[in-house]
């Protein structure tokens, strides 16, 4: 183990010189997705209803928590009481699957209990590289029965647990 980023649950073994503990947004991680360049890793926190952005050093593999524009943790959460810079985001009830588009511009998160798919824009360069932002007016898609998201056309989507973007980036 060369290092780790852990929530508040005890028992994670970490290399002391590369550890970061108390990151609540990563509590009970359920899925991982790496951007096409291998520089940013996204982790869903099932129990915290969040997705966090981590920078990845391509040479060492070490991860570090990204900071958002306001200096808070670069993550997005469903609730309002956590450490994430973006709070109260619809579509993240219980995130269980995540994928990054082949062009690296978008990130999608499936919520198993919310029956939603949250959609994000991904900053690809500069100081804010790796950060996620909800797509204005199209933050997520859900079923007609849920009505939490702006788009309710995901007819028949029940408990999604995985996502794949087509190689051409046209379909999810």
Quick summary:
This protein is mainly β. It has strands at 4-5, 19-20, 29-34, 40-45, 50-56, 63-65, 73-77, 84-86, 95-100, 106-111, 116-122, 132-134, 140-142. Helices cover 0% and strands 34% of the residues.
Explained architecture:
This protein is globular. 0% of the residues lie in helices and 34% in strands. The chain has 172 residues and is an all-beta fold. It has strands at residues 4-5, 19-20, 29-34, 40-45, 50-56, 63-65, 73-77, 84-86, 95-100, 106-111, 116-122, 132-134, 140-142.
Show the helix and strand layout.
Elements lengths: L3 E2 L13 E2 L8 E6 L5 E6 L4 E7 L6 E3 L7 E5 L6 E3 L8 E6 L5 E6 L4 E7 L9 E3 L5 E3 L30
Parallel strand pairs: 1-2, 7-8
Antiparallel strand pairs: 3-4, 4-5, 5-6, 5-7, 9-10, 10-11, 11-12, 11-13
Largest sheet: 6 strands, mixed
In one word, what is the shape? globular
- What share of residues are in beta strands? 25-35%
Treating each run of at least 4 consecutive H or I residues as one helix, how many helices?
0
Structural class: mainly beta
Q: Roughly what is the average pLDDT, rounded to an integer? A: 87
Low-pLDDT runs: none
Measured between the Cα atoms of the first and last residue, the distance is 34 Å
Number of strands: 13
What are the secondary-structure elements, in order, as H or E? EEEEEEEEEEEEE
Q: Percent range for helical residues?
A: under 10%
| Radius of gyration based on Cα positions | 15 Å
